[in-house]
Amino acid sequence: MNDELEVLLVSGKEIDKKLIVEILSPFLKIDKESCDIRPLSTWNDLRANIKILLYLIARKAMVALGLPLSEEKASATEIMQKTGMKKGTVNPALRDLFNERVIEQSEDKKYYIPNYAIEKVKEIINE
């Protein structure tokens, strides 16, 4: 299968690491021991939906880096704890992001950003 169309092939498991860095670096760093995010000063000015997207992208980066994180998916409770936002803020934002098809929910009720939606996340953050 050696023809021009091969340039269109990608793996659904691969992530664009350069894009991930571009999305995250203005807003947070990742603690390699605790797998916590370390928000930068720009974090405070962000809307809840953006903070959730950044946190979920950071988890994707942690898994790609091989950090001791069990999975890239996160429960609503974990998102609240790790971002410092309240339930009344996180749950409606998660519902909106899910309805907009930016995030998905696994059978065990955990949220994640599918690889195909990373470009859309970048657009939302840059709005």
How would you portray this structure in words?
The N and C termini lie far apart (41 Å). 44% of the residues lie in helices and 8% in strands. It has a single domain (15-126), classed as Winged helix-like DNA-binding domain superfamily/Winged helix DNA-binding domain (Arc Repressor Mutant, subunit A). α1 crosses α2 (48-65). The protein has helices spanning 17-24, 48-65, 76-83, 87-99, 118-126, and strands at 28-30, 37-39, 104-105, 111-112. By secondary structure, the chain is mainly alpha-helical. The strands form two sheets. The protein has a two-stranded antiparallel sheet with strand order 1-2. It has a two-stranded antiparallel ribbon with strand order 3-4. It contains five helices and four strands. β1 (28-30) and β2 form a beta hairpin.
Keywords:
127 residues, two-stranded antiparallel sheet, two-stranded antiparallel ribbon, Arc Repressor Mutant, subunit A
Neighbour order of strands in the largest sheet: 1-2
User: Into which percentage range does the β-strand content fall?
Assistant: 5-15%
Enter the CATH topology name. Answer: Arc Repressor Mutant, subunit A
Radius of gyration: 15 Å
Q: What is the residue-mean pLDDT, rounded to a whole number?
A: 92
Number of extended strands: 4
C-alpha end-to-end distance: 41 Å
Number of domains: 1
Count of alpha/pi helices: 5
CATH architecture: Orthogonal Bundle
Output the structural class. mainly alpha
Helix-strand sequence: HEEHHHEEH
Give the overall shape, derived from the CA principal axes.
globular
